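Question: Now follow the chain.
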Amino acid sequence: MTRVVLASNNPKKLAELSAVMAGFGFELVPQAELGVEDAEESGATFEENALIKALHASEATGLPALADDSGLCVDALGGRPGVYSARYAGPSADDAKNNAKLLVDLAGVTRRRAHYISVIAFVRSANDPDPVLCTGDWHGEILDAPRGAGGFGYDPLFLVPTHDCTAAELDPTEKNRISHRAIALAKLKEKLTAG
């Protein structure tokens, strides 16, 4: 089993990634367990930030690294919050504050199409000349009020039309099968298996 450092300190994201990657031959070790601090996400895109995080964790540990940069893009807001999803309401904002700001920004808006995006970066080393980047999209709409207690981030506001419920109301196993992160990870498994 290959030890791979997971470039995240978000426990809910760690649980999702570990569940989806189960049985792939990776022992995912959270970066905090190896004394690695979060990287500064200075990129303008999800791809840049995912790569920054993966390379940072690999350089600090000498291990291969896996990173996810993900967020919510709302059509009516020109793609915002985008790469700023986790800090939409400010640098120390939590999910509740970010959701509240999103609802304020969408007040009076009737077309509420949105999509989650996840970019997974996998590097074999800190100087990997050929990092693997995989993207997953998950389309839905933003509700007027939160529903459900599961998930994290904007899940209570994100309506999944195919299931007629929010991402926060989905069974975790089902979410891990159809989400943006699941789609990106499936592509990663395919690429690594083919390579």
